[in-house]
Amino acid sequence: xxxxxxxxxxxxxxxxxxxxxxxxxxxxxxxxxxxxxxxxxxxxxxxxxxxxxxxxxxxxxxxxxxxxxxxxxxxxxxxxxxxxxxxxxxxxxxxxxxxxxxxxxxxxxxxxxxxxxxxxxxxxxxxxxxxxxxxxxxxxxxxxxxxxxxxxxxxxxxxxxxxxxxxxxxxxxxxxxxxxxxxxxxxxxxxxxxxxxxxxxxxxxxxxxxxxxxxxxxxxxxxxxxxxxxxxxxxxxxxxxxxxxxxxxxxxxxxxxxxxxxxxxxxxxxxxxxxxxxxxxxxxxxxxxxxxxxxxxxxxxxxxxxxxxxxxxxxxxxxxxxxxxxxxxxxxxxxxxxxxxxxxxxxxxxxxxxxxxxxxxxxxxxxxxxxxxxxxxxxxxxxxxxxxxxxxxxxxxxxxxxxxxxxxxxxxxxxxxxxxxxxxxxxxxxxxxxxxxxx
Length: 439
Known about the structure:
Layout: H1 12-27, H2 32-39, H3 43-67, H4 74-81, H5 84-113, H6 116-135, H7 138-169, H8 188-199, H9 206-210, H10 218-255, H11 259-266, H12 272-304, H13 323-339, H14 345-365, H15 376-391, H16 395-426
Pfam family, one: AA_permease_2
Keywords: Cell membrane, Membrane, Transmembrane, Transmembrane helix
Membrane topology: Multi-pass membrane protein
């Protein structure tokens, strides 16, 4: 039977704001320290590798989104171009990995504002507040994301200015070459591992694609929004990474709990530290806002195809949002915040997101020439890059990611078996027939 559709309410500016809120908030305040632990002075080389892989993925995603402007992102693309199993694995990787990222962002928000004993309660309050905003409609989500992005960019400009003062004024960095001079002696496995971790910070442009059913003129707006958001994020990350490495040096950066706060402290800008802390908290909220919206839409798309429980496909009649999916995801995030140590969340999220984009790149390779917007070789390079970065992630992240994929595959096999048994006993149930013209 026909499924209700989400309303197309997002224009170019709003789509860019949601993508930037996901990218800039998701990584810039948290990812440089673990990346520096892996790469040392080769951090910027790792950033360049991550940016190239992300560029290829962004091109493939934009190309596919123009052809399939529906909710679900790479889940939908994989299902349409490659088959049900690749689509399911892409969607499952996204939902599980980004749910962990939501919990990490909530905890990041709380860590910058509260003492340890209050961090988990404050993080839970943040999840509830952001879920409430999302449930009021996608345009409200976009307005809040716009305000957050503007504020965070201002804070990051302050950090870059402090880093420039330290680097060129000799205040803290001791002349550390921000471009990794001498990095030929670096452990290239460590540099590639840092690229895999830094890729976590670029993944937000997928949020634009997962909201494809709510974008006006999607074939034109989505590719433009992805391109703009990605270009801005690359510039911001390069400037902030150079500032942090130059001001702190690789060893101090690697050991830092709040590296961007340490950058302003390094030049004696004590007045700026509270501003950066608030900016970090706001950025984490922006990432949480966009992440919850994207996961909800992917869960909606999967539930429409009976890949997840059917109630997750329900759309609120007034606010036009997948309210059941968003509430369910928010509850899972709250449980994770309350119970789990998420120190490995970045690596785990990178594993899921890289597999998600692997499917997107392979799907883009299969598109015929009239649908192509980027060279097929770029999509192939993106697929290879995803595989290389997955293989170089920390072992614990790979093991956890494989285990979660196995759980998802087992769920799908069991659920399909149950539905087949029901059909054999009494014919197709009310939700067993074809939907939306798809078998």
